[in-house]
Design a protein that fits this description.
Distance between the termini of chain B: 15 Å
Structural class of chain A: alpha+beta
Number of helices of chain B: 17
Strand content of chain A: 15-25%
Shape of chain B: globular
Helix content of chain A: 25-40%
Structural class of chain B: alpha/beta
Strand order of the largest sheet of chain A: 2-6-7-10-1-11-12-13-14
Strand order of the largest sheet of chain B: 1-3-2-4-6-5-10-11-9-7-8
Shape of chain A: elongated
Radius of gyration of chain A: 29 Å
Largest sheet of chain B: 11 strands, mixed
Number of strands of chain B: 11
Order of helices and strands of chain B: HHEHHEHEHEHEEHEHEHHHHEHHHEEH
Radius of gyration of chain B: 21 Å
Bound molecules: zinc ion
Strand content of chain B: 5-15%
Oligomer: heterodimer
Number of helices of chain A: 15
Helix content of chain B: 40-55%
Largest interface: A-B, 30 and 45 residues
Largest sheet of chain A: 9 strands, mixed
Chain lengths: ~475, ~475
Amino acid sequence: MKPSTPSFTTDVVIGLEIHVQLDTKTKLFCSCPTKPVATKQNAEDVPNTRCCPTCLGFPGSKPVANKKAIDYALKLCLALGCSISETLVFSRKSYFYPDLSKNYQITQYELPLGTSGAVMLSTGKKIGLTRVHLEEDPASLVHPDSIERSAFVLIDYNRSGIPLCEIVTNPELASPEEARDFMKQLNAIFEYLDIFNADTCVVKADANISIKESGYIRSEVKNITGFKEIERALFYEVQRQNAAVAAGEKLVQDTRGWDAAKGITIRLRKKETEEDYGYILDTDIPVIDVTPEWIAQIKKQVPELPAEKVHKFVTTHKIPEEDALVLAQEKLLAEMFEKVAEKIDPILAAKWLRRELLRVMNMTKQTFKDLLIDEHHLIELLELVSTKQITDRTAQKMLEELIVKPFSPKAYVKEHGLGAVSDAGIIEQYCKEAIAENPGVLADYKSGNEKAFHFLVGVVMKKSKGKAVPNEVNSILKSLISH
Amino acid sequence: MTSIVQQVALFQQGASIEEHTRAVLAETREINEHYHYFTALCEKEALARAQFLERLSAKEKASLSLLGVPLTVKDALCVKGIESTAGSRILKGYRPPFNATAVQKCIDAGAVVIGKTSQDEFGFGGFSVNVGLGYQVPKNPFDPDVSTGGSSGGCAGFTQKTTFPHLSLAESTGGSIVEPASFCGVAGLCPTYGRVSRYGLIDYANTLDKIGPMAKTIDEAALLMDVIAGPDEKDGTTLREPCTVQNAAGKGVKGLRIGVVKEAFGEATDSVVAETVWRSIHVLEAAGARYEECSLPLTGAYGVPTYYILATCEASTNLAKLCGLRYGMQEELSGTFNDYFTAVRSNNFGAEAKRRIMLGTFARMVGFRDAFYIKALKARQLITNEYLSLFKKYDVLITPTAPVLPPSFAHLKKLTPLQHYMLDILTVGPNLAGLPHLNVPVGMHNGLPVGALLMGTHCAESTLVQAGACLEKNSKNEKK
Ligand SMILES: [Zn+2]
């Protein structure tokens, strides 16, 4: 066993190994589909229906590398700023587990496709990446009852051979919150690259965690599924290690599992020696040259990434960084913002997309992919707002309807008579009525109660059915009262 | 005797394929009873196939180069629906749901598969005496107390023994086509690595395995070679170059430069074997070839250890999947999965398979990997370079195929595993370098055949056929 090297400066040290499923149509080494195929009988995925001799590991079968999966992995490596290996070679990692059809996994060992990339956190801190490589997923084990109580286990090979990219970070994350931020940034990059499908693809992580108080004795938590779970598991593990040290316990290096239902980690085994996988080359797959031409071609497909977008939004569109960070997080949102900002004041556009659009989408549980409205709807709506033809309140209400069933905002305003009331005569009329109807409130205001004034504004807005321009109401009301 | 080409012509002119197949099956049953060449016979399927071919139109028949030809297939190659075990009890009951590409190509060309032939378990041996538990050792067609050679012993023995035209699909990792071909006096062509798709071959060692033809004559081996060669999208290691060797046979050897590897004629080689092969070198010379002695010092010194390290490392990962869970042998479920698969493997792998799994696993473990596996990869590159530099000067290299006459079973029992391994010394070199090589029967001694080994550079199969056919023609008087 290697002695731990407590050369860290932070109190908590976290390293992550992320497995992300690449969104290809077929598996990594055969032409079986990666997603359920709906049949007349079944819309659902039926176990062991998407497999062939190769993904079942039948004697005589051979793996053939899927070019698309390599393209995707290459795209990810380039987006993460990795150095790219000149050749792509696969290795066999031998171990026995019932879900592994060949009893070895085809992965990359000697020469990972990408090395020494980085991901920038929202704080600007850079997290270095040790390696990014391609590998196949094993099958899945299905326990008919709980793991402890099942008399047998079923194996579903539909997942066997699904293409995964493994991303290994340096141990440079200093808290569960940083780990969450890292995952958020990474996820945004996945989305931008269009290589990952949040609905059908899975993200899994193994995490190494240690704390200063124990002398950085690390635990490895295996198989954490999903973004939220990663932070939860890390948070738990830091607490557990702290409590153990506080209770005078001496920590030992171990491997743990994350029980999401109970919210705890469980020791799987003491880690005294590295497992020996006896790696050899998998020569069924010929050595593939990663040529400069290939790299250049994929590089062209890498879009402007979130960090670049943030930079551009702040410097050229002059919007607040806080807004830029939110807008850049989602590729489709960022693109929509860019289109809207061509026609509308970017600061106004940023405010409306970031706050209002996201709020309304949240209400209706819509994602960008199934969003019915496009930038034209938003441009029309915000033109009405910026030229004060409608009030913010009206615009908010319209957006709520627009998002469910799109329509032309301008025509809608005309049809429903929603145009903002900025005619001073009408507003003055409403104000006078409001004052006359609420003598007590006026007295309150005069004796120094500011709230009373807002009440009167509210009455006027109600009378105008929300169409009065608030600034106008304020000034007219003020001048009437001060007389 | 009728040749393949003549037989196919007879069928195309209307001779009954079904009748012929019935006769073939009867003779096969009879031969097998005494010589144990088969792990599985598929008479029902063969007859059905013959009947199907018989019903084809004259036009359809005319397009099939192997119409009605009885084909045997080494047990390591998958034949759809026919038990395919690579000669191992652990795969008992495995009926592949697909044909190996080479098998499919033969079927598409009109061949009739009549059975799976016996072999050393997974190809682990040079004498077909390491057959899997429960299988019988094949006997040499010239003397039942003598080995057929291995591991494609069943292919070789049966190819020699039949009175009817017949072809066989064999497989080589370290010499398993040419060596049994030599011991049984038939033609065996081991092609360039990647010439023939390995899809459907139950792996021994992926960087070394090749499927190749065995036949009564060089010509017929060439015919089968052209049928099975070519790129295959199911095997990423197949070569794109087209392969046409059939027409090379009649070209003669005028001006051919031949290198005689002198290490192969040293003390370790039987003098009668050396003399017979030297005679054949003079036959080639008389036909217009020039020869010169040359040397392969690295291959001689490091070929065998390099081969055994790489082959066993690869084999140990290939065999890992055989654990009684998914196909083949299953046993009573008991204990944890570790207990279960350990028991299945202990009970069903033969001794040599266990030995090679242990050797290979050891050589790739941390701490030994660099000293063995990685070093062997480097040695292999040096050996390949050594060959390629000789092929700048020579078109063909020649040695005996085996250093000894086919040994008796009694003699083999006395050898240690290491002595067994050392008998592969002449054939592991071209296999490590992925070079094509051909066994040509060149004479008999005490009623047993002697073979010459011709080796060529990558994709030079046609040169080998050219030289081999010349040798075959001119050595005829000395045979039998
Ligand atoms: Zn598949």
